[in-house]
Amino acid sequence: MTTISNLAFVHPEAKIADNVMIGAFCYIDRNVEIGAGTRIHSHVSILSGARIGKNNTIFEGAIISATPQDFRWKGDDSLVVIGDNNQIREQVIINRSIYKDGKTVIGNNSFIMAQSHIGHDSVIGNYCVLGNSVKIAGDVKIGNYTILSSGVIAHEKCNIGDWVLIKGGCRVNGHVPPFVIMAHNPISYFGVNAFILRKGKKSNAIIEDIAKCYRHVYQNSTSVFNALRRIKEDVDPSPERELIISFIEGHDMKLAAIPKVDIED
């Protein structure tokens, strides 16, 4: 049974599924859809364009589908699309797209901690963790099973791969390939995300091959071009190896924390 506080405002055009709870002083706008089993605590604003899936929990003071903070937005209708089973903690702000019928996307089973901000047209994968006060600019892509620790700032149009850990307070100003840990400012390669990979049932042999790939990329004082060539020659084929190669090749080799080496040997 759906429970709506008599101190909440719900627009008559909003589509509210069964077994939704809406707390006191919430504001639910027109052109909003909320899936079954979702719980919305007090003082939450869900604005036009929100599409929220099943069994999410949204905590006090969050704002979902806020209008974009971008001069390019001309007032067109756009969306925030949130999947299922997410935890969105206190005072999180998620902006909708700047483009007509565009969308900002949050996947499934993610945990977005207090006071984080997700900018327009960003895409957050499944099983992600965003720590307290993480700031995601517009057009950022974050892969599945990735953790951004508290205070991380991701600049516009960065692409962060799957199974990545960004340590607290880092400023991400380039693309981050899958399976790595990044730390410090300026951001630098810190190693392979082995602990989380083992939690994900990756074998020690695969983790060692991933480490071998990144020794070529980050630790051998060669160009990215040559690092890719060495990976193809030196590391046995696997889905993980192919993901690393395709990520680097697909992002014009503009990776965060790559040493400035121009030589080709």
Characterize the structure shown.
The chain is of the alpha/beta class and 265 residues long. 17% of the residues lie in helices and 26% in strands. The protein contains four helices and 28 strands. Strands 1-4-7-10-13-16-19-22-25-27-28 form an eleven-stranded mixed beta sheet. Strands 2-5-8-11-14-17-20-23-26 form a nine-stranded parallel beta sheet, with no helix packed on it. It has an eight-stranded parallel beta sheet with strand order 3-6-9-12-15-18-21-24, with no helix packed on it. A hairpin with a 4-residue loop joins strand 27 and strand 28 (188-192). Helix 2 packs antiparallel against helix 3. The longest helix has 15 residues, at 204-218. The radius of gyration is 20 Å and the shape is elongated. Residues 261-265 have low confidence and may be disordered.
Features of this protein?
265 residues; alpha/beta; eleven-stranded mixed beta sheet; nine-stranded parallel beta sheet; 4 helices; 28 strands; elongated; disordered C terminus
What is the gyration radius calculated from CA atoms? 20 Å
Count of discrete alpha- or pi-helical segments spanning 4 or more residues: 4
Query: pLDDT under 50 segments (min length 5)?
Result: 261-265
Distance between the termini: 68 Å
Sheet-strand content, in percent, reads: 25-35%
How many individual β-strands?
28
Structural class: alpha/beta
Helix fraction by DSSP (H/I, runs of at least 4): 10-25%
Question: What is the mean pLDDT?
Answer: 95
> What about the largest sheet?
11 strands, mixed
Globally, the shape reads: elongated
Strand arrangement within the widest β-sheet reads 1-4-7-10-13-16-19-22-25-27-28
